Amino acid sequence: NEPIRQRMVPYYLLVFACLFGFATSHPRHGNLAGNIRATQSSLADFLGDAENAIDGNDMTDPTKGSCSRTRVESSPWWRLDFHYHYRIYKVKITTSSDKGLEGANIHVGDCLKNNGTNNKICASNISIAPGQSQLVNCNDIGVHGVFLTITTPGNGKCISLCEVEAYGTHEPHNDI
Fold first, then answer.
1. What is this structure's pTM?
2. Mean pLDDT for the chain?
3. Which of 22, 47, 85, 93 is the most exposed place for a label (fewest CB within 10 A)?
4. All domains of the chain, ordered by start, with CATH?
């Protein structure tokens, strides 16, 4: 029995060392949008992938492949999945040079019901001119959650974002 036990110990240590060596920690503060996943309600064309809006490049020309873009549709949305709980205090949005945001809402929370629009509102009725950036405050105390959703309610709308930065702090949450 003892020889088998001795052979197994190095394997356990090797697995632990591999997991420890490749694991990356989540950001605790600062721009939280760099190492996460983005999705959106639809894809307008091959250049408009949702993750283009978190690539660190705030170039506003949508033909250069650094902006996200939904199709023209009813109440389009664009969403970040932080994978961890954060209290979001500010969101910086840069729109594409040919399409601004008009009447947009930012929701933050833990629920994906109705594509995240059932979550708490961080800010509402945001309008940003084409090719411009705006820093938006999430009320006085920030909003806590795993998901951040930007939506433009109404028919015949499109969302085109060239960069989204979310600022907040890691805030563990134990009841999920």
1. 0.79
2. 82
3. 22
4. 37-170 (2.60.120.260)
